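Recall the central idea of this unit: under ordinary conditions, the amino acid sequence of a chain determines the structure it adopts. In this exercise we apply that idea directly, starting from the sequence alone.
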Amino acid sequence: MERTTSLSNFHIDQDLHGILIAFYGCLLQTRLQAGQGYGNTLNCVLTVYRNESVVGFFKGMSFPLASMAVYSSVVFGVFSNTQRLLSQLRHGDPDSTPVLADVALASMVAGFISVGIGTPVDLVKIRLQMQTQPYIQANIKLKSTVPGFPVYRGPIHCIRTVLQKEGIAGIYRGAGAMLLRDVPGYCLYFIPYTIFCGWITPDGCISPNPSSIWLAGGVAGAISWGTATPMDVVKSRLQADGVYLSKYKGTLDCILQSYQNEGLKVFFRGITVNAVRGFPMCSAMFLGYELSLKAMKRDQTETNP
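Accordingly, the structure predicted from this sequence is:
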């Protein structure tokens, strides 16, 4: 039991470490995708630092930081248990090596479930990150709709305001775009990880070593986040919409307006930031996940010899 507890704590530490790394690029990604006036990543970095100092890069961090450990645990748990169920149905043994089709189906289920938890978290994060100055310094009324002035005092106030103004539908704004991002995105997350782990694990080894897990997880994260960027742009724009003005009627309308106004290149905004931050974040996630699984299996073996 003591070993399981220590490994579970390690899993949480790895998750938090990955989230902290991700937030270095998270605000940049949001501003590039949903904001205006940022020519490129460097210009975005300099503009944020000049106008909001170092604190600006961590805007909207508290709510995702408090919820992401639970979010990632649910996603990995759904993926793992779905995979075991499919192996049980196919081979009669939940611990048998899953075929690629089972990995793909488990990934799709995990992506679908992730939307229910992730959409409100992302909405709060994006709404807070799109505010360009602290609420206390603004000295304006909350009902102000002038772009550039803050509307939300923090994550709880953001949730309450959105619920009062838009209802439950407002909290799940962008859920359709997130579904289109996460279902294929998790397939391109777990499948490359499984393949790369198989490639770089030496023959004769029962399970991959930590360095193989770290590398495969990082590559899978970079691939997944890079290819998910087009729908990530659409999701970010939909969730940022409605803070000051309501511009988009839905996912398709957002795609059409974005393309008509800015061309095809708009859907690749922030792709570099996404791919770069995806590597260390997903390396930490997969490392914590695999080590936790090993610890639980070891304890089950010791408890039931």
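The longest helix spans residues 2-34.
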